[in-house]
Amino acid sequence: MITAIDTNVLLDVFGADPKFGASSKEAIRSAIAQGGLVACEAVWAEVAVFFPTAAAAREAMERLGVAFAPGSSDIALAAADAWKAYRRSGGRRERVVADFLIGAHALTSADRLLTRDRGFYRTYFERLTVLDPSAG
Predict the structure, then answer these.
(1) Looking at the domain assignment, is residue 18 inside a domain?
(2) Span 62-89, pLDDT tens digits
């Protein structure tokens, strides 16, 4: 069982978030034990911003057990379709294309997505199984 991971869960752990850090860390452990953890380019880029160097970001991701799983043109086009649907339904620009890339990547490259942003992904990627580490 391959689990794609969203940026917010990784930042819970890397930032030792007092509210979500422990549950996110446990969810990551569980996902790795059940088969593995992957993240697309958008997640790696968003996480890397919080480290002093690219090398430090790579080391942290690898140490945590997050594999880099690049996307494809099909994923990019699926993300574009979801973004268009979001905008047509009145979605504001508070969502960025990276969110749609993460959802499309998880849908096509993994069995599920580990994120605390479950409502958004369930709306725009209905077939995606979403796990929320903060849901008790």
Answers:
(1) yes
(2) 999 999 999 999 999 999 999 888 888 8
Reply yes or no on whether the pLDDT at 119 is more than 70.
Answer: yes
Does residue 136 sit within a domain?
Answer: no
Q: Please give the Cα distance from 100 to 33 (Å, whole number).
A: 27
Residue 14 lies in a domain: yes
Q: Report the SS3 class of residue 114.
A: strand
Domain count, the chain: 1
User: Could you list the residue range(s) of the whole structural domain that residue 62 is in?
Assistant: 3-131
For residues 91-109, give the mean pLDDT.
Answer: 87
Position 78 in a domain? yes
Burial 3-13 (b: 16+ CB within 10 A, else e): bbbbbbbbbbb
Task: Report the C-alpha gap between 87 and 95 in whole angstroms.
Answer: 10
Give residue 46's Cα distance to chain centre: 10
**Among 109, 136, 134, 122, CA closest to 43:** 109
Distance CA 54, CA 131 (A): 28
